[in-house]
Amino acid sequence: MFGVTILGNNSALPAYNRHPTSQVISLNDQLFLVDCGEGTQMQMNTYKIRRGKINHIFISHLHGDHYFGLPGLITSYGLLGRVTDLHLYAPAALKTILDLQLNMSDTWLPYKLHFHALENASVLIDEEHVSVECFKVFHRIDCWGFLFREKRNPRKINAEATEKYGVPLSYYEKLKRGEDYVHEGKIISNDELTIANKPVRSYAYCADTLYNETLVEKVHHVNMLYHEATYLKDKQEKALSRFHSTTIQAAQLAKLAEVKKLLIGHFSSTYEKLDDFLTEAQEIFHDTQLALEGQTYLIA
Amino acid sequence: MFGVTILGNNSALPAYNRHPTSQVISLNDQLFLVDCGEGTQMQMNTYKIRRGKINHIFISHLHGDHYFGLPGLITSYGLLGRVTDLHLYAPAALKTILDLQLNMSDTWLPYKLHFHALENASVLIDEEHVSVECFKVFHRIDCWGFLFREKRNPRKINAEATEKYGVPLSYYEKLKRGEDYVHEGKIISNDELTIANKPVRSYAYCADTLYNETLVEKVHHVNMLYHEATYLKDKQEKALSRFHSTTIQAAQLAKLAEVKKLLIGHFSSTYEKLDDFLTEAQEIFHDTQLALEGQTYLIA
To answer: Of B49, B105, B209, B258, which has fewest CB within 10 angstroms of its CB?
Structure first.
């Protein structure tokens, strides 16, 4: 399973029971938290997120609607007796804030909190099945996007063919990595001995940001792009002045980047109904969905 | 109207849809916010609190469950275009934390935020109709209680009597303040010329705290005492080790202080049902109520 569950889809001012930004990305049995607006831990209760499975938290930038829920989550983990290490990727100043808050409350965490300061576009996680990269987006203050990629899946053994050529079990790992096999002096091609596995999938997260076409290269061909769309298209000037994007700008970026699906969110609290967000974006990029709280979107 | 509306009644770990501590005290047309746990601004939306009427916020101590909702509320006031001054009464270190958060997010507030550091038991507000005092309570870190008192109400004019003695209108203010009147060389007592107004009412807030009988003097005879009751009576040792109180300790303090009503809250997240909290407290002090979210308790 590779999916994203929305915990908060609103811009800074909570309204209409919509919450500030937070998302949970699940890949196999791992959960990754992206941004943590106020109330995220309550939203986790509401939507039954297995918060103990989260070992990595990514904070895009230091506007409060993207991290004011983090101190609460971090201290709640302590109260719940967490012992597993927790990795936090965020702009450097967040460490100063958290250290001060923990100090002032005389709080001791029973688990280790590793802080990774976001400084350059780079690979943050490089594990067996997944990699996570960060890249700059274009906001009023320093702000980061994140790219989640499955690793290239190993090929599957074609049991019938390996039996036919008597390939020993000890050679299977090499086959999975794509190597050929020599049988009675003849090269048997890997294609004949293995079956391609599912293609790798990817998810890119871009919030908060101005429309900027240099992002096309970063998110090219991803299976799902989350791009903020704070305003409807008639508010392009307002979007520009506040370093945000409109529906059609998000859709235009999805189109240029030839992504498979687009997910839009970070809706301004001036809008009660969201229907127009979908209609406008779909005019430019058909495979658009609204990021709705409590919904999980499969990345496929 | 003098009342308190509960926005959060739970201890640190949000559970069973109960939120961390926050209360709104309303007196005439003024609102006072006491503590501001994570999610307070959303609770204000849910319970239709007129947040623009709040000009004074009191933070008892710097454990996160009593102030992690404050940075969000403060920035939301900015986004809503607030221009009225806001007064914040809290331990000094909170200013450092807020300044850092506002700085890092490059946030400019369109209103003036006055920070008043809590340092000694003192009168914080002394207005025409209300006074607010702070006093020390007994927690693991520096922690404050608050006492809200109506000011002595001026006496009401007895129109029939003032007419009888021909008291001029210009003298009415003196009558209201309790002065006698001289009519044809004879002293007409104030009692005859005026009617006593409603007696003054008071509300005391004690969270988080150990049971400590020195508080009796502070909250003596208040109309309503809010005292934390984090645990049921069988958890007295746990309460002690965590600097909290039990049901019967809260009730015992109410009894000794001869208050009119007791309100208990800050329930531990280990309890799903709250019935036993009420039963246990009422065994000691009958006029006890549970602080329930969204409920308003009249102070009378």
So the answer is: B258
Residues B161 and B214 in one domain: no
Q: Which residues contact B35 (CB under 8 A, 6 or more apart)?
A: B8, B21, B22, B23, B58, B59, B60, B66, B67, B207
- Region B63-82 average pLDDT: 97
Say if residues B254 and B288 touch (Cβ distance below 8 Å).
yes
Widest CA span in chain B: 73
B15 touches chain A (CB under 8 A): yes
Q: Which helix (H) or strand (E) holds A117?
A: strand A113-117
Backbone angles phi, psi at A194, to 5 degrees: -135, 165
CA distances from A271 to A215, A277, B35, B42, B49 (A): 27, 10, 30, 17, 21
B181 and B259 in a single domain? The answer is no
Identify residue A51 by its one-letter amino acid code: R
Mind giving me the DSSP string for A45-104? HHTT--GGGEEEEE---SSGGGTTTHHHHHHHHHHTT--S-EEEEE-THHHHHHHHHHHH
Range of the domain at B172: 156-195
Closest CA to A136 of A124, A148, A121: A121
pLDDT on residue B16:
95
The token pair at B100 is 């850092």
Identify the closest residue of chain A to B79 by CA–CA distance.
Answer: A13
CA angle B292, B297, B300 (to 5 degrees): 155
Rg, chain A, Cα only: 22
- Whether residues A101 and B97 touch (CB distance < 8 A) is answered with yes
- In this structure, are B55 and B181 located in the same domain? no
pLDDT at A197: 83
Query: Do A131 and A209 reside in the same domain of the chain?
Result: yes
Looking at the structure, tell me whether residues B117 and B12 fall in a common domain. yes
Of A14, A20, A64, the CB nearest to B45: A14
Dump pLDDT digits (tens) for A32-69. Answer: 999 999 999 999 999 999 999 999 999 999 999 999 99
Predicted TM-score (pTM) of the model is: 0.90
Residue A274 CA to residue A294 CA, distance in Å, equals 16
* Over residues A6-23, mean pLDDT: 96
